[in-house]
Amino acid sequence: MTQTQNQHDLLDVQVDGPIATLTLNRPEKRNALSLRVVEGLRQAFESLPDTVRVAILAGTGPHFCAGLDLSELSETSTAEGIQHSFKWYEAFSKIQFGRFPVICAMQGAVVGGGLELASSTHVRVADETTYFGLPEGQRGIFLGGGGSVRVSKLIGFSRVTEMMLTGHVLNAQEGLAINLTHYVTPAGQAMQKARELAERIASNAPLSNYAITNVLPHIAEQPMANGLMTEALIAAITQGAPEAKERVNAFLEKRAAKVTPQS
Ligand code: 1HE
Fold this sequence. Notes:
Layout: E1 2-4, E2 11-16, E3 19-24, H1 35-46, E4 54-59, H2 78-96, E5 102-106, E6 109-111, H3 113-118, E7 123-127, E8 131-133, H4 136-139, H5 147-155, H6 157-166, E9 170-171, H7 172-177, E10 183-185, H8 190-202, H9 206-221, H10 224-240, H11 242-252
Parallel strand pairs: 3-4, 4-5, 5-7, 6-8, 7-10
Antiparallel strand pairs: 1-2, 2-3, 8-9
Helix pairs in contact: 1-2, 5-6, 9-10
This protein binds 3-methylmercaptopropionate-CoA (MMPA-CoA).
Keywords: Lyase
InterPro entries: ClpP/crotonase-like_dom_sf, Enoyl-CoA_hydra/iso, Enoyl-CoA_hydra_C
Protein name: Crotonase/enoyl-CoA hydratase family protein
């Protein structure tokens, strides 16, 4: 049964069993991220019920997210600008390093801070109307929501440099080719695909999901010897859990699904 958890007028939160769906709900401003929306995301991700095993992040209307709410910049001092970025980092870290994986369902503009937000999620699904851009250069500003780190890790800093300098906008297929999205669906079907993936992810062992979303990024940052040791430790922890034993036995006893190609 779907439960509405709304505490925020600009962010719709629905929980349906193990799947939470959080939808930016400011279509008249193309889901631009005001500080209030960013705070709402942080609070929502902090307060989802313990039963949630996976979340979908989406945006209402024809565009996923137009990035930073530019109307908030005009009055901001340098010191406030730093605080502003750290508020975003806090919220986006809750998404990237939370208890469960997050899938992003995208359409239309995924630009500036919208791309920074999407890059803090673990699995990204774009429909064919989606396009990606970093118009900070044109606006006279810089990435400030973690994108220099997160988007650079996805696509390399050279591509980020080029997108910011030239205003190069990539379409969904181009985004797929360089890792900005993992899937491209026909128009209007990103949410459907995200739900299908969410069901699959929710059926994994939660400890495996946690290791994938929280330990893998650390391993990627470590020198090889440390990375291998961290891997060995987390592998032993996950495989030692009773749930892992049961899942492995289920396969050996022919009670579990085989790995098959997907359409
Ligand atoms: C906004 C914003 C916004 C729209 N902040 N108000 N982001 C950008 O530079 C992207 C700016 N936005 C756009 O390029 C376009 O709005 C879109 C391509 C996303 C959509 O176009 P369209 O024709 O569907 O909508 P629109 O008519 O441009 O916008 C509708 C309204 O939303 C309009 O306000 P209105 O009062 O005239 O109705 C727009 O002003 C408003 N709006 N986008 C504020 N971003 C932490 S650092 C991150 C740095 C960045 O994110 S830089 C990139 C900022």
